[in-house]
């Protein structure tokens, strides 16, 4: 059935479930083609298809938990999913582009070394010089978590371009040369089966008689497989032509650092003896630096290798491309607020250089946002959002009204309009649509202007607003950038720029704006072009001395190091300017800078000044932080030291350093042990414990100084739990003591 | 030199043999006389030792092949378990019995089976009437295998009661093989290293066809002048010779010099070779890169060796963790107070500097330290406060996986794990510079 | 004519030579089969008696033949068996089982081997046995035909006896000794070992079942006998095809044995080890020089041989080192002198070397540290230097603690022999000036 383009907004429905059903239904009707619509189906109470039922309620439930009313949960989930899918594919694509260069180099290296390997040994030098194993030292940076992906794609590339025989080895699989050979041969034989699965009996036979994991058998395998490929049917020829003649065997050591010297040594020695029969090529995956090769292998072994170095793109650059493609674009409706972005970037820069983790964090943000923010249902493409607005339920409208940014907006309106906004849902919806549109436009304009500003700031001395665009972005998100003095100073500096720089920058800006999708930039472009032409005109001799002067001032700027001095000189210069009238060039320069300044003031308004920004922006950094940068020790400590904060039990509330006997035993034991030194006397500990526990039973209990068995047992259990947590351990010095492993021992 | 002679073999063969083994005639004749005639008994086991590339393997192979003595030749590094080794020997026996290479699968787990199957293999063919030689190259590996393997091989003749001789080749002296309870003593034979004259002779023996012999000889002479001090490995030298020869010829090719004026040639090649010692010889630059460099004669300086790329990009806190680890492993514990306490009162430099330690810690290497000390130092050297988050701890472990730290001793995580910092001073200084932290000020050795 | 004659003779001569070679090589290199026992008539009779009792009167028994390596344990046994075999009855029904500690490394293998040597594989087939004892019992049972007397005696010979001690619970030994005590099939167990303390190695229950018969072979002969042995070993048998040559040869041997220098040389060897094998080795070496042109062994041959034999292998290796490596060794020597043989690491050695370079090395350029490291690694590879602790996965190599496996005079001797060694290096070796 083809629905009317604008389904009439359903009447507000008192009970949520129905409302949910209806909205879901509506949405269903409109975009029935969507693949994830099944999820929304899950919201129907009737006609569930069995398979879906198992999946969807779960996911939807999570989203319900997000907030008490389950508005559009299914829909939100669906949106979330689709968004994430897009982003994922995007990132993967970026990954490939970034690795391309590196892989090309590697491939060419392999080709070259292999051809060298095959060149006729009649030539004198080849006969004289000893055969070395061609080896690529592949430096990938310390972000080990990202490596797997790289290797995966690498091996694919190799298998497509060079050879079907690629083996990936990991240190933990190869404690000894024996295991290494087994792993290696296993992988190679399988890949042989992959090459042509026509003859099953061969691979069966391979698997059946246990392979003598020796180089000899590997060589014989290689011999007869190459024989096969040479004497293969022309149909196969095509496939083999893609590979090299008698293709090399590529062995990739994923984590060089973790391999033991012995294993590598043996393997290299063995394979170097047979390099003539078995054209082997090694790839060392290195996280730290190629030095590891020398520190790992004795020279007698490393002299069997012919090592060449390959370095992957530094992960920082990688990150900035990712940010560029994911955040600084209007492609995705979902945005990160400044704090959240900061958290992610800090984790990246301070802890792990892992791009994957960054993306994971980003994913988490998405899920969190769609899960916690009911209105996030509107966080999608503009057209889509507008449609959805129509089908918003009453409670959703209420949610909108509750938004602080919306409140501000309402207050700014005239009174009758205020009433309309707060009462009439339909009117509200229209407004919302408008606002969303504004927001969209804002984004469209924001990005190019930001880039343009970056063009300027990134070329100033000392980078007052940061070198990377991400820093600039954060600054702009944080608050009105033009009110910061960094901005001031950078403008000052911009006013000192010499002509050529200025021109080039302007040209860049023109390009940026021209390429941007923003509507109202035509005028801007015009203006900029005009500036350029004017600069052209300035080719009169009149400008020369200022030029010289400005250059000299430029020189001065280079000399002046810290910002403070910089500004001083700037002021002085200003003064000097005041005295004598400005030249044409300077006038123009001021104009340009002012123009840019204008752009900034118009377009780089921080997002949280925008109405309804809550819909698009995820800004609960705290949640993110506790997810991604947890502090287990602290958490444990608070849990044990102040159980209330987790258990929320009144009885535990009374917490003035005193130990309440209501607390779980382990808490009591823990608190007591905090007061002890490195070694804890168990008997004293038990005493203290029992006194705490008995505290309620008044003096008579205290009188009987021998502890009763129940308490003893509880004590023992608690202590053993502590030991399990790794806070204490039995000590060897004294039998009746335990050693304390936590900090702050007196 | 004595030219070989032996009643058992035709003179022609012996001549060919002699031509094949320059500078090893005496050893060969020795071996010949020991082996005696084909069917005669000889030592049950012979242990040949000598330096790397002193021609042990080569001589044995050529000897056995040219005289067509029945033999088995196995490299013990390649067959790293006793089972593989024994099976390989048996397989080769089968092959040298019947030329048709039927790779029938032999299963041989123990030496007991080996002896039995060995007897069968030998009787199954015409080997009774002549001595069979089993050559085990890189024999030092035998020590890694089960304890009974080496002694059993030494007594193989007795155990199998066949006319077989086991020849062991190794770089290591026999004293280091002998098991504690002793064993059958083999006859040990030493292959002396090539003298410089020998090297000269052998290296210049096969000169490139397009150049005259003595031209090449002169080149070899220069080469040895540079490298003989550090390296006498024939293979290595030959490799180097092949790599650098083109450079040597350059002036001649350019026509700036003829093959006579050695002075000029020397001036051209000598610095180049010196360079080679620091680069190719250490495999800092791969041979192929080196050759490319020569082809489009670029200055070796422009191509950076592996060690040039020592710098490692690390996350901010990892850097500080590493620095802290370095300090912890090279400073005595007692000095921490002075270095890291803000107000460490008046610790007198005199009594603080106990100079009775005559050797600096940078001579003795890093000392292990507990986790707590590491963190304590970390907190004091990072100016803004660090929360002990999971990430910090995970960074420590990842530093260990990167081998920048190493976990010492039993890795029982519960009672404080102990670490060592395994990076060099230069490395850590480079790291410290990036976070502008003046590490030298904090190192006890440099006070 | 004369030429032909000479040729004639020479060819005949060649014939003789190869004969000589064959016979003597048999003797020297295959002695365990062919050699002749010396001065052990007593033990010989004892053992023979023992075995006779088993084989003829069907008594079970057990004995150990103990003696240092090369003292002729195997030879003794072989001879006894040879003689035993001359008795018809024995030849017919004595069953021998030869085991060797080097081959049967565990009892499972041993049992298989026993079965095989008793030709009982088909009898056993694929029966499954509860215990080792059962299995052995079954085997012996299978051997038994008719009553006790007529059941054929079994002779177990365990070479490298001491290795069987390490088998799990010494099950094999226990059972063998057990059956050798229980009066069923006549079983005799003969163990050959070079360990004097063998009895301490036996478990109590095993020991208690052992008859404690021990035959000791100390090659207890004085130098006079040694000379005699030397002569006998070298001289040709009477039944040599060419008497005249045999005559010549034996006379020559006689002369050699009287030659002073030869005697001194033998004296040395005698003091070095009485082990006949070393003598054989020596003679073999000398013999290998015998050719048509050089028909008789001379004193010089023997001296050559002994030189070859007494060569110090470590010195040889050191001789082959490069100057740089020698320098490192000297540096280590100094370190040893200073720190009284405390272990050292590469860093220290390098330091030491640097000092030397700075002070007084003009002969050679300053080497890069990696180059020195490479040299050091070569020493490591030759095991002239040995790391004291197992090199853990990741200790920096320059800080691994090492020990030098050469002593000072070895180094010094090597240096003396070292070809064109720079003078200041020599000086440095002798004087530890660098410490002033």
TrEMBL record, chain A:
<dbReference type="InterPro" id="IPR020795">
    <property type="entry name" value="ORC3"/>
</dbReference>
<dbReference type="GO" id="GO:0005664">
    <property type="term" value="C:nuclear origin of replication recognition complex"/>
</dbReference>
<dbReference type="InterPro" id="IPR040855">
    <property type="entry name" value="ORC_WH_C"/>
</dbReference>
<dbReference type="GO" id="GO:0031261">
    <property type="term" value="C:DNA replication preinitiation complex"/>
</dbReference>
<comment type="similarity">
    <text>Belongs to the ORC3 family.</text>
</comment>
<comment type="subunit">
    <text>Component of ORC, a complex composed of at least 6 subunits: ORC1, ORC2, ORC3, ORC4, ORC5 and ORC6. ORC is regulated in a cell-cycle dependent manner. It is sequentially assembled at the exit from anaphase of mitosis and disassembled as cells enter S phase.</text>
</comment>
<comment type="function">
    <text>Component of the origin recognition complex (ORC) that binds origins of replication. DNA-binding is ATP-dependent. The specific DNA sequences that define origins of replication have not been identified yet. ORC is required to assemble the pre-replication complex necessary to initiate DNA replication. Binds histone H3 and H4 trimethylation marks H3K9me3, H3K27me3 and H4K20me3.</text>
</comment>
<dbReference type="InterPro" id="IPR045667">
    <property type="entry name" value="ORC3_N"/>
</dbReference>
<protein>
    <recommendedName>
        <fullName>Origin recognition complex subunit 3</fullName>
    </recommendedName>
</protein>
<dbReference type="GO" id="GO:0005656">
    <property type="term" value="C:nuclear pre-replicative complex"/>
</dbReference>
<feature type="domain" description="Origin recognition complex subunit 3 winged helix C-terminal">
    <location>
        <begin position="633"/>
        <end position="743"/>
    </location>
</feature>
<keyword id="KW-0539">Nucleus</keyword>
<dbReference type="Pfam" id="PF19675">
    <property type="entry name" value="ORC3_ins"/>
</dbReference>
<keyword id="KW-0238">DNA-binding</keyword>
<keyword id="KW-0235">DNA replication</keyword>
TrEMBL record, chain B:
<feature type="domain" description="ORC5 lid">
    <location>
        <begin position="216"/>
        <end position="283"/>
    </location>
</feature>
<dbReference type="InterPro" id="IPR027417">
    <property type="entry name" value="P-loop_NTPase"/>
</dbReference>
<dbReference type="Pfam" id="PF21639">
    <property type="entry name" value="ORC5_lid"/>
</dbReference>
<keyword id="KW-0235">DNA replication</keyword>
<dbReference type="Pfam" id="PF14630">
    <property type="entry name" value="ORC5_C"/>
</dbReference>
<keyword id="KW-0067">ATP-binding</keyword>
<protein>
    <submittedName>
        <fullName>Origin recognition complex subunit 5 isoform X1</fullName>
    </submittedName>
</protein>
<comment type="similarity">
    <text>Belongs to the ORC5 family.</text>
</comment>
<dbReference type="InterPro" id="IPR047088">
    <property type="entry name" value="ORC5_C"/>
</dbReference>
<keyword id="KW-0547">Nucleotide-binding</keyword>
<dbReference type="InterPro" id="IPR048866">
    <property type="entry name" value="ORC5_lid"/>
</dbReference>
<keyword id="KW-0539">Nucleus</keyword>
<dbReference type="Pfam" id="PF13191">
    <property type="entry name" value="AAA_16"/>
</dbReference>
<dbReference type="InterPro" id="IPR020796">
    <property type="entry name" value="ORC5"/>
</dbReference>
<feature type="domain" description="Origin recognition complex subunit 5 C-terminal">
    <location>
        <begin position="314"/>
        <end position="443"/>
    </location>
</feature>
Automatic annotation (TrEMBL), chain C:
<dbReference type="InterPro" id="IPR032705">
    <property type="entry name" value="ORC4_C"/>
</dbReference>
<dbReference type="InterPro" id="IPR003959">
    <property type="entry name" value="ATPase_AAA_core"/>
</dbReference>
<dbReference type="InterPro" id="IPR016527">
    <property type="entry name" value="ORC4"/>
</dbReference>
<comment type="similarity">
    <text>Belongs to the ORC4 family.</text>
</comment>
<comment type="function">
    <text>Component of the origin recognition complex (ORC) that binds origins of replication.</text>
</comment>
<dbReference type="Pfam" id="PF00004">
    <property type="entry name" value="AAA"/>
</dbReference>
<comment type="subunit">
    <text>Component of ORC, a complex composed of at least 6 subunits: ORC1, ORC2, ORC3, ORC4, ORC5 and ORC6. ORC is regulated in a cell-cycle dependent manner. It is sequentially assembled at the exit from anaphase of mitosis and disassembled as cells enter S phase. Interacts with DBF4. Interacts with POLQ.</text>
</comment>
<dbReference type="Pfam" id="PF14629">
    <property type="entry name" value="ORC4_C"/>
</dbReference>
<protein>
    <recommendedName>
        <fullName>Origin recognition complex subunit 4</fullName>
    </recommendedName>
</protein>
<dbReference type="InterPro" id="IPR027417">
    <property type="entry name" value="P-loop_NTPase"/>
</dbReference>
<keyword id="KW-0238">DNA-binding</keyword>
<keyword id="KW-0539">Nucleus</keyword>
<feature type="domain" description="AAA+ ATPase">
    <location>
        <begin position="59"/>
        <end position="219"/>
    </location>
</feature>
<keyword id="KW-0235">DNA replication</keyword>
<dbReference type="InterPro" id="IPR003593">
    <property type="entry name" value="AAA+_ATPase"/>
</dbReference>
